[in-house]
Amino acid sequence: MAETGSVRLGETTIPYSVFRSTRRKKTIEVTLDPVEGVLVSAPVAAAAELVEKFVQRRARWIVRKGTERALRPRPKQFVSGESLPYLGRQVRMFLEPSGAQKVSVAFDHWSFRVQAPDGLAGESRRAAIEKAFRAWYRGRAQARLEARVARWASIAGMGVPEVLTRDQRQRWGSCSPDGVIRFNWRIVMAEPTLMDYVIVHELVHLKVRDHSRRFWDEVGRLMPDYRLRRVRLREFGEQVVM
Hints:
By secondary structure, the chain is of the alpha/beta class. The protein is built from six helices and eleven strands. The model has no long low-confidence stretch (mean pLDDT 90).
């Protein structure tokens, strides 16, 4: 199975799949397939960082020659070699056979180690692994969000609100009149600076309910570069495929 990754050129995200060959000794090659998208042929020993840099150098050519379909992020298959985002980095996934009764996910030295029951196969295996990842992400999101909300509430001179994580695809965060803030668990996939932007946005909403000048002035007081973070969060949202 192919590895996956992505690079950016301006506002365009370029997802790609890497196929390694023992016969390819040194060169890396990028081709465009109308169905499969951006394909990268690389030597077995080529580091993922080297492959990414090569694709980045070819980004302008890819965008110029590629179609909308070729540049669209593809659904994850949850197989060995794929990468999933966590804290703004692409983390490789490795599947290991297991006699366990259910799928488990472990984060170890910036790689995902996944154990799946031997009897699982096909779509049942893919769905079970995706479900396990969703649970893993949600648990990590809850812990990180609670800690960072407490930090930003202190900076803002506010009390610490209750924090919940939800599967809400249409928004990154929301707050209710009773002072509870709900976050999309997928925010833990983004770099921490973007998580902080969502946190500050919702904390300020506890004081100012609308998006008036007063609201954005308060956001800007706490986070002077919020405009840049807002743009980057929008770009990140276009890449999320889970």
